[in-house]
Structure formats: C-alpha cells, structure tokens
Design a protein that fits this description.
Elements lengths: L11 E5 L11 H9 L3 E4 L14 H13 L3 E6 L16 H5 L3 E3 L5 H10 L3 E3 L11 H12 L4 E5 L7 E11 H7 L12 E7 L3 H13 L8 E8 L12 H9 L6 E2 L13 E3 L2 E7 L2 E6 L6
Parallel strand pairs: 1-2, 1-3, 3-4, 7-8, 8-9, 9-10
Antiparallel strand pairs: 5-11, 6-13, 7-12, 12-13
Helix pairs in contact: 6-7, 7-8
Pfam families: Peptidase_S66, Peptidase_S66C
Protein name: LD-carboxypeptidase
Keywords: Carboxypeptidase, Hydrolase, Protease, Serine protease
Length: 303
C-alpha cells in the first residue's frame, strides 16, 4: 500500500458531504481544529445543501467529491459526516487523477465505502473522527487524527476484554463499519481480507441483524483467512421483544470462534467519543495477551 503525502502547515483540506446533509454551523468545531493545525479548510458545495436526508442530490455529491479529488491544491478530503449515501455515488467517481496525485481521505461509518474502494486502488486512508459532533470527541481522539495526517507515530495499548483471544500477528489493517462491509459484498468495492487484520465497528443495529451480517461476511470468506480481528465500538445495539440471547460482542466472537487468530474487543474506535484514528492499508503489529492488546503502526511506504 502507498501512503499519500502527509499534511504540512498551510495545506488545504476539503470538507465534503458524501452522505447525510449537514449545515455550515455544524462544522465550526472541525474548522477550528483545522485552523489550530495551521491547515486551510475549503468547504465543498454540498455543505448546507439538502435533498431529503442527503447533502444534495447524488449528482451534486458526486461532483463535489470529484472536484476535491481532482483539485491538486486540496491535500486531504475530510468527510463531514456519515449516515447513508456514499454508496449511491461511488460508481460515478473517477479516481484516475487521485491515483496520480493521491491525498488522504478521512472519515468513518458510511465512509467505509471510500476506504474500501481506495484500498483496492492501493492507497492508505484514515479512519477517524469527522467534523460533525467533534466537540464531543475526546482530546485524545482528535490528537490521534492529527498524528495520522501529519505522519506522527500511532501506537495503542488496550485493556483486556473477556472475549479476547490471545496471539500475535503482523499484517495490513482493513475494515470499517460492519453494515457497510456487508452491503458491499459482491460488488467491485468489496475488499479482500485474506491475510489481513480486520477492524469492525457498528452503531444502532438490532442484534439479530448483527448476526445476519456476520454470517454473511463469514459465508463470503471474509473471516476465514484473517491474521487477526480488532473489534471497536458496537454501540447502542437493540434487541427484540423475544431476546436474541447474545450480546453484539458475543455474536461477533461466535462468528470467528472456529478460527485461531488473535481477537481484540473494546478497541477505542468507531461510534465512540474516544474514536482513535486508524490508518487502513498500513501494516500493524498486533499482540493480544492476558494484559490486553497492543497495536503498533509500522513505518509507511511513501508514494
């Protein structure tokens, strides 16, 4: 995997809405963060636009993202928020110029669509906090995003969780939101997880549907040949009047119980206030033992 150029003072960062709509005043904290890093925010035409729940219609959202990808002055694209909608425009995006002049794509949740598509092109991306609601994120979550886009080291130590499975691995980190990975199965955006370490997180799902998605990932071979599994926030899950019988964490563990690779739960990333930055496509050293888990990001391969 190739690493886009790290940001430096004075660089321009585009903010676009590829999914759910957002008002300009919801970006104040994110814009302030960019300015505090001596970066220059550039707002896309989708900011403040609306088409039902989307940040403008599909044509506008695709054109806005395309403009940010093609503009050589824009050194990173920070997606304003998630929700739903990125998959509706992904097939309209031309990555020809991006491949020649790569830049960081930043976001999580619905932005898993972009992470997956760009992973298949051979470039790293950043799974991290987005401008909307960033005032609720911890200082450490925001600091790790700065560390990622400026090329500083990223190392994490996580306390032990009862469902952890011990072991060690070194491989490329991929993944994102379970619902999005599930929805991409069978499409040209679906990622190859063989011999990689998979990260998973999700929000606001019924437990039976978590099981349905994990069974589908398993049937598609996405869990069989992993080097490791890192499970982040499984947040605000729901149950039916007839209980499913397992927690979301137990459902995920059940889906991988027959395999032998290391598994870590309760990693601080996903729909959490403490949403630490991850670099997808980067090799990591992953160790799970009785004390907890360690994730060390390796030195990058520069473009």
């Amino acid at each position: 995997m190739l690493t886009p150029p790290f940001l430096k003072a004075g660089d321009k960062v585009g903010i676009v809405c590829t999914a759910r709509k957002i008002d300009r005043d919801e970006l104040d904290e994110g814009i302030a963060m960019l300015k505090s890093c001596d970066l220059v925010p550039v707002l896309g035409k989708t900011i403040g636009a609306a088409d039902d729940q989307f940040g403008g219609d599909d044509k506008l959202r695709a054109a806005d993202l395309q403009d940010m990808l093609d503009n050589e002055e824009i050194r990173a694209v920070w997606c304003a928020r998630g929700g739903y909608g990125t998959v509706r425009i992904i097939d309209w995006i031309n990555f020809y110029k991006f491949v020649k002049y790569p830049k960081w794509i930043i976001g999580y949740s619905d932005i898993t669509v972009l992470h997956s598509q760009i992973h298949k092109l051979g470039f790293e991306t950043i799974h991290a906090v987005m401008p909307v609601g960033i005032s609720k994120n911890t200082a450490l979550a925001k600091q790790t995003l700065e560390n990622a886009w400026f090329g500083r080291p990223l190392h994490y130590t996580v306390p032990a969780s009862p469902l952890n499975r011990m072991g060690e691995a070194r491989a490329q980190l991929v993944g994102g939101n379970i619902s999005i990975l599930y929805s991409l199965c069978g499409s040209s955006s679906s990622i190859d997880t063989d011999n990689k370490i998979l990260f998973l997180e999700d929000l606001d799902e019924y437990l039976y549907h978590v099981d349905r998605m994990m069974v589908n990932l398993k049937r598609n071979g996405m869990l069989r040949n992993l080097k490791g599994l890192i499970v982040g926030g499984l947040t605000k899950m729901h149950d039916n009047s007839v209980p499913f019988g397992k927690t979301a964490e137990e459902i995920v563990f059940d889906a991988v119980s027959e395999y032998e690779y290391p598994v870590c739960f309760d990693f601080p990333a996903g729909h959490l206030d403490d949403n630490r930055a991850l670099i997808f496509g980067r090799d990591i050293s992953f160790v799970v033992n009785e004390r907890g888990a360690k994730v060390y990001f390796e030195e990058p391969e520069m473009q």
